[in-house]
Amino acid sequence: MNYGPARFLTAQQVREIALQLGRLSWETISLRFDPEAMRSAGVYLAEADGVPDGARTVFHMLVNFYSDAASQNNAILLVVL
């Protein structure tokens, strides 16, 4: 599966992403989880009938990662493997 080229996010983009992620709650994200739609799209975690174990933890790790980077005025090199 091709996830595209590496992307460079400027410090300003990181702040914007952190702001938007900070506005999301886990409850909002989990309500949007649709295993059937994910299976149809070929998403690998879609084998679960509900929200996969650990997804909440990973969501909070992502929010914290961007929040920490933004607070330090860091840019991010984003590569999806």
Q: How would you describe this structure to a colleague?
A:
This protein is mostly helical. The radius of gyration is 14 Å and the shape is globular. The N and C termini lie close together (9 Å). It contains 4 helices and 2 strands; from the N terminus they run βααααβ. The protein has one domain. Helix 1 crosses helix 4. Strands 1-2 form a two-stranded antiparallel ribbon. The mean pLDDT is 88.
How are the SSEs ordered, and which strands pair?
Layout: E1 7-9, H1 11-22, H2 26-31, H3 35-41, H4 55-71, E2 76-78
Antiparallel strand pairs: 1-2
Helix pairs in contact: 1-4
Give the number of helices: 4
Q: Tell me the structural class.
A: mainly alpha
Q: Give the oligomer, counting copies of the same chain as homo and different chains as hetero.
A: single chain
Strand order of the largest sheet: 1-2
- Count the domains: 1
How far apart lie the N and C ends?
A: 9 Å
